[in-house]
Automatic annotation (TrEMBL):
<dbReference type="InterPro" id="IPR029035">
    <property type="entry name" value="DHS-like_NAD/FAD-binding_dom"/>
</dbReference>
<dbReference type="InterPro" id="IPR018206">
    <property type="entry name" value="ETF_asu_C_CS"/>
</dbReference>
<dbReference type="InterPro" id="IPR033947">
    <property type="entry name" value="ETF_alpha_N"/>
</dbReference>
<keyword id="KW-0285">Flavoprotein</keyword>
<feature type="domain" description="Electron transfer flavoprotein alpha/beta-subunit N-terminal">
    <location>
        <begin position="25"/>
        <end position="201"/>
    </location>
</feature>
<dbReference type="InterPro" id="IPR014730">
    <property type="entry name" value="ETF_a/b_N"/>
</dbReference>
<keyword id="KW-0274">FAD</keyword>
<protein>
    <recommendedName>
        <fullName>Probable electron transfer flavoprotein subunit alpha</fullName>
    </recommendedName>
</protein>
<feature type="binding site">
    <location>
        <position position="305"/>
    </location>
    <ligand>
        <name>FAD</name>
    </ligand>
</feature>
<feature type="binding site">
    <location>
        <begin position="267"/>
        <end position="271"/>
    </location>
    <ligand>
        <name>FAD</name>
    </ligand>
</feature>
<feature type="binding site">
    <location>
        <begin position="253"/>
        <end position="254"/>
    </location>
    <ligand>
        <name>FAD</name>
    </ligand>
</feature>
<dbReference type="InterPro" id="IPR014729">
    <property type="entry name" value="Rossmann-like_a/b/a_fold"/>
</dbReference>
<comment type="function">
    <text>The electron transfer flavoprotein serves as a specific electron acceptor for several dehydrogenases, including five acyl-CoA dehydrogenases, glutaryl-CoA and sarcosine dehydrogenase. It transfers the electrons to the main mitochondrial respiratory chain via ETF-ubiquinone oxidoreductase (ETF dehydrogenase).</text>
</comment>
<feature type="binding site">
    <location>
        <begin position="284"/>
        <end position="291"/>
    </location>
    <ligand>
        <name>FAD</name>
    </ligand>
</feature>
<dbReference type="GO" id="GO:0033539">
    <property type="term" value="P:fatty acid beta-oxidation using acyl-CoA dehydrogenase"/>
</dbReference>
<dbReference type="InterPro" id="IPR001308">
    <property type="entry name" value="ETF_a/FixB"/>
</dbReference>
<dbReference type="GO" id="GO:0050660">
    <property type="term" value="F:flavin adenine dinucleotide binding"/>
</dbReference>
Amino acid sequence: MFSNISRLLAKRASKFVLSCRFNSTLTLIETTGPNVTPASLSTLTAAVKVGNPITALLLGPESEVAGKQIAAVEGVDKILISKSDKYAHLLPEEVSPLVASILKSSDYTNFFVPASTAGKGILPRVGALLDVQPLSEITKVVSPDTFVRPTYAGNAILTVKCKDKVKLASVRSSAFDPIERKSEKIADIKEISYVESGNKTQYVSEQLIKSERPELDSAKIVVSGGRGLKDKEHFDQLLYPLADKLHAALGASRAAVDADFCDNSLQVGQTGKVVAPNLYLAVGISGAIQHLAGMKDSKVIVAINKDEEAPIFKIADVGMVGDLFKIVPELTEKL
């Protein structure tokens, strides 16, 4: 009798161990200098939903400093860092061979990256090296092998079950809150070596727009302008004071960006950034389907437009039909 019980317990323990191995996730953590990006914290939230243990991968000269910021996050079991200068700017051609090497030599069953510019470059290359089909911009984790993602500019939602040995996915940060849970356990930090890539791509330079406003990706309030503002002068005169009053991030439609009203880093939409703030204020934006795909998950949408037939009003919680050149200054003054 006791031998039967022992065998049963051993069998259940074996299943438990296999389950733990099945729910193991490698997560790429992006940094800005020594600080972890909000999108990476949201990616960790998605990883926690898959299950423990989680290994965080940080790259670049300041990766050790950034690694200490998430060492106490609940669910993070281990932190891998590489301080090589080759990884300083997360060139996909440099990072992909390293990630593929880690995944080939370990039991990880999931690999998550933020759906950022870097993540979107790294993920397909890792998929090609491993001969695995990656999933882009997941918005929900159903189980360790089943995920929800939008398609057709968000007009259709897919539930996808992945049968690959390693599940590769980019995580839409607006769909997951940044992780905040702390653990008393401090994860071990292990340094790994640079993996030769044979890469011929070189980092040349970058131009960063510095602003005191919140980052567009993670802002709680976004003020966004479109073609209705007519030109860059009106875009600056009307939206900047309004955004300052609301302590909001500034956004724009593709039409405004193409007309050189503002820098393309402010573009919201299918080919720009996807946001889901508590308040999205659309000024002079008609609401093309590509723009709606990037902001329709906002908690409250307020639209100001002179065209009462504009598509933006179909999804707006509050709509005002009128001359934005009169409405916006008055709104700013009242605020």
